[in-house]
Design a protein that fits this description.
Layout lengths: L2 H7 L2 E3 L7 E3 L2 E3 L2 E3 L2 E3 L2 E3 L2 E3 L2 E3 L2 E3 L2 E3 L2 E3 L2 E3 L2 E3 L2 E3 L2 E3 L2 E3 L2 E3 L3 E2 L2 E3 L2 E2 L1 H8 L5 E3 L1 E3 L5 E2 L4
Parallel strand pairs: 1-4, 2-6, 3-7, 4-8, 5-9, 6-10, 7-11, 8-12, 9-13, 10-14, 11-15, 12-16, 13-17, 14-18, 15-19, 19-21, 20-22
Antiparallel strand pairs: 22-23
């Protein structure tokens, strides 16, 4: 296990300056990331279980082939970040901001989505939804594409 990945495994991580990371083939469980700033980072083929992301910024990152299970994303910013081939299972998205961050070939199942997140992932037909519901929305998304 490399030092860079180890830094992200701490249960509480707060960062005031951008971090440039390569995180690949890691399993991170029960972690809380508050104020984390990742810039130009690659997260690939990882498993995040019951992770909480609060007020985090992903700038110019690539999130690819990640399994997110039971994770929460609250007040995070995704700026110029590629979100590709990820699976979100029973995740919660609340008050996140997306700018020039395309989501492609993602699967969302049993997720709670706010309007911004639903709009972001609905822009690409390659993304699929199963048994998702929307916060403050009369929405029951059940698609099999």
């Amino acid at each position: 296990m490399n030092t860079k990945s180890f830094k992200l495994q701490r249960s509480e991580l707060q960062a005031n300056s951008p971090r440039y990371e390569l995180i690949e083939n890691e399993t991170l469980t029960n972690c809380k990331y508050n104020g984390l700033v990742l810039s130009g980072s690659l997260l690939k083929n990882c498993d995040f279980e019951h992770a909480v992301f609060e007020n985090c910024t992903f700038f110019g990152c690539k999130l690819q082939g990640i399994n997110f299970k039971g994770c929460q994303f609250t007040s995070c910013k995704f700026l110029f970040t590629q979100i590709q081939e990820n699976q979100f299972m029973a995740c919660t998205f609340e008050d996140n901001f997306f700018d020039s961050s395309p989501a492609d070939q993602c699967s969302l199942t049993y997720c709670q989505l706010d309007t911004k997140c639903l709009n972001q992932f609905s822009q690409n037909e390659s993304n699929t939804f199963g048994q998702c519901f929307g916060q403050n929305l009369n929405l029951q998304v059940q698609e099999d594409k």
